[in-house]
């Protein structure tokens, strides 16, 4: 595992993501190493092989300084603008406990009296450390990515991320603190078409934490992800792999969309962007900062 301190050139990056005007990625690389991670394409920008994803993290030591300068340039203290932490890394992965780059960036936003929406997206309960700052921000929402309710499944697909039980607990705690939260159910894992009751159970458990808003996303199966999946998924049931491959197929997604619709209605959740997101290709250089 390689951890390196680097000096970044920029930090507040304009975004074409549907619900973000800017993204902040305090780190390059992500130790959580999820085997379906679309951000693994970042390897090519730092001279790494795609199979190194999860094995390196570059720490942007000057991120807060850069953010301070960038935020001062925003009109009206950023009113109406949404900043997402993060798009190609997890802002609360393990190194954050030591370096606190995400925390320092949030402190900048508090000090600047930032008026836009700050949206956090993570798989880690380390996010709870920063509740004091969340309480000070004018407009903040915190999202936990939850792709399954079974720890065994999350351990398999999201190798080094905190297990899902901890993520449900984190949502519950954030809700109990009166903070606005959402769950990001993505990518949808392949067994949900075969076992719709599992998606039903997942949505039920999200609702039970007190969270009402969800994003749902179909898996992105670009060639580089498929190649990584094939290498990492040694031993995975062939039938499950077939399901993965068929998620490129519109009929499969339509079937899944119907299941999602039923579950959303049943558990009275609010699905953001109105339906499940599907990124055909997501190599969006606008979301990259080194
Ligand atoms: S936590 Fe997010 S950025 Fe990190 S490896 Fe997993 S999917 Fe990729």
TrEMBL record:
Q: Which UniProt keywords apply?
A: Iron, Iron-sulfur, Metal-binding
Domain Radical SAM core, by residue range, is 24-184
Looking up SUPFAM superfamilies in the UniProt record yields:
Radical SAM enzymes
Q: Could you cite one Gene Ontology molecular function of this protein?
A: metal ion binding
* InterPro entries, alphabetized: MJ0683-like, rSAM, rSAM_sf
User: In the UniProt record, does the keyword Iron occur?
Assistant: yes
**Name the record gives this protein:** Radical SAM core domain-containing protein
